[in-house]
Fold these 4 entries.
Entry 1:
Amino acid sequence: MIAAVQFRNFKALRSTGVKLAPFNLVLGPNGSGKTSVIQALLRLRTLAALPASAEPPPDTGGPRIDFAFAAPYQEIGVSLGCSADEMVCNVLTVNRPPGAAGEALWEELRARLRTIRAYLFDHYAMAAPGKTEERYELVSNGGNLAAVLLHWRDHQPAAFAALQAEFVRQMPEFGGLDLRDGAAGTVELGGRLKVNGHEFIAAENLSQGTLYLLAMLVLVFSPAPPAVVCLEEADRGMHPRTLREVRDALYRLSYPRDAGMERAPVQVIATTHSPYLLDQFREHPEEVILASKQGPAATLERLSDRADIMELMKETHLGDLWYTGILGGVPGE
């Protein structure tokens, strides 16, 4: 949905921009702007819920973020004006086609923008019993995972069954998931082992990676997913040998029809520091965005825009090219 984003004087992103694909893996050193991209999208979401300005404010050269969109919203441009002192974007300017048709198109787009979500999972929060009256959309740290799964089991059985089947396929030591009533209106999540009489393993005793996998599968199999999902540290807690499964799970969000799913695609922006996850995108360098930093300024570059990338990949693994610094986007440049 979001075709491109351009930054000016926004934190480390002084003068750079990048085109966005349906799926985007963003990598680079700390402080190179990966999280700033996600913060810009979240600010766009927030301001899209408020009245927009028809006239741009005077251009003082301060921080600014410009967004372009894919069809059918390609005639709409959105700019965020930011305070230079506090680096807070608080002015939304919309350039749209005139008349009722342009207004209707903007209203449709802003409704989608308000569904942008960002996640950085916390396994301690996810392991805690969930309150059954909590909202049934996964929160940013995954802390209501048990409540979401309980709601799915009772009200979205097809989605719950699909998630459980994929979980068991990837974690074959388990026979399924279990949700049990806890104290004071809570629900406790756990897994049932295939052996030992289907022993119940409570969420607090599940591994970090197991809980992250469950949260990721909630995003993948959600009956009504967001238009855009931002996932920080997509490989967090995962063994390198499982990263192809992580990639394929996230691909189901962006390319649902390839997985036999009948729903709208979800645009994904995922960050990583893992050369092993990067290796999974050897055949798709157009989905990789490299963040590089020179002094205080950072730039964003789509890997497929490099003229030498195909030749370089003939010599070694893509992850090794990045890790050794050949591609750039590493600390100490």
Entry 2:
Amino acid sequence: MLALSFLIGVLITLPIASIEFGLTHLLIKLGIGGRLKNFLNAFAIAGIVEEGVKYIAVNLFLRRNRFFDQCYDGIVYAAFISLGFASVENLLYIWRLGFETAIVRAFMSIPAHMLFAVFMGYYFALGFRSDQSKRKKHLLLAFIIPVLLHGLYDFFLFDIQKSPVIYFVLITFLCLSLWRYGLKRIRTLIAFDNERMNDGENREG
């Protein structure tokens, strides 16, 4: 199942690349440049398109997955789908810009993709395991939070030449926050799963 989820991440690279290619050329055709171009590239093209397609893939994969029996599984499967996409994306960057770019992305962009997926998987798990009143809210957050995080991360990178020191500080703060709150959400779901298992054992006993 992990290999399958990774393969799905690889396959969704094609529709994502096609949509992003079209939108990028649309921005060029409209003559949009400067900070507005960086903003749209970060939030609309990278954030909404990449996280949107991943959202659809994770949603469909979890919805009919009989192995999705623990909340923590939501994070695991979302992360593997995201890493499948990030791996292909990294290969494309190597092909276009050289191996040096891949080294930088290995320490920054690939972990960032994984952490965006942690938040997506976290809210998907809550959505599928919560009652109907909270389900829509959690499934909506599974889309909105990764889009905002991805958009911020990419905007800081795209616009870094405007204010290198300020954006470097912001990127560092964002990355540390992603790790801190991402790990916190992982621990939350693990604790929730353990509590459910203990309750089940106590009822059987």
Entry 3:
Amino acid sequence: MSELQERVRTAERWTGRTVLSEQVRAALQSVPRHLFVDDENTPLAYANRPLPIGYGQTISQPTVVAIMTDLLDIQNSDRVLEIGTGSGYQTAVLAEVAKQVYSVEVVPELAVAAKRRLGQLGYENIEQITGQGRDGWRDQAPFQVIMVTAAAEDIPITLINQLDRNGRMIIPIGPNGGPQNLIRICKDQAGNVTESPVLPVSFVPLVQDLAIE
């Protein structure tokens, strides 16, 4: 945790934050990251690097998970939409600090594996579906918080529409393999939306064309 805190301080010039909130620190300490990676990558589970989880997807490095979660200022009364369940690690971290997490995963095999892991760990405040991330989860909207864990070339208007008044959203924006920035989006009480670039990042692309059966 001390190494992670140091990396967060190093990113201050982009994020404006020198320390993680107490809630986020506790969440990161509570979630056993090694249970969310393949056996062959277990020795690297706590290294500050992304790791492959199959199907062209990755589990983000701990620093990025920490910063993205912290920047959303999640309250224990918030309902959170996560786009990209992946292995379920970020989902679990969100579930530690939010009232309810709704997670959407486009790859059925990853969705099934994540649901099994999260169930075994006893999380009861997570709901999951398999679907296209850009569509969000209309039936459960609006959400006070939206986190997108894959890069889009533009901000999906559908997700903006599902963000509640006074809501926060974070999403990596940029081309696959090209320059990307983490963008923090806020919607005020009147429905006005502001966008703030936060941090240079590198994410796998938000899948748009995978057929869902």
Entry 4:
Amino acid sequence: MKKIFLGILVGTLILGMVTVAMAGPFTWREARQQARIEQGVDSGQITTREYQCLEREQGRIEAHRQRAWSDGVLTPGEACRLTREQNRTSRDIWRAKHNGIHY
């Protein structure tokens, strides 16, 4: 019984690591940016309207990332586009948190 459970656990961990490795740094960066947005909302630095705008941007990046990986290959052009979009969103998060508008 323990061997079956251990086998399932190891298989799940391996599958999870493969999935994360395929998604690469873009998924990690999206998660970090999402955490920054949530921290800004919690601290009152990001207003509701700014939050909605940033969430839309994050959603677009997620959709573009999924579309780029749909064929199983991320081309250099697609990677460049995703990086550019994430840079823009990161800059927008910083501006929203530091624009002096609080609620």
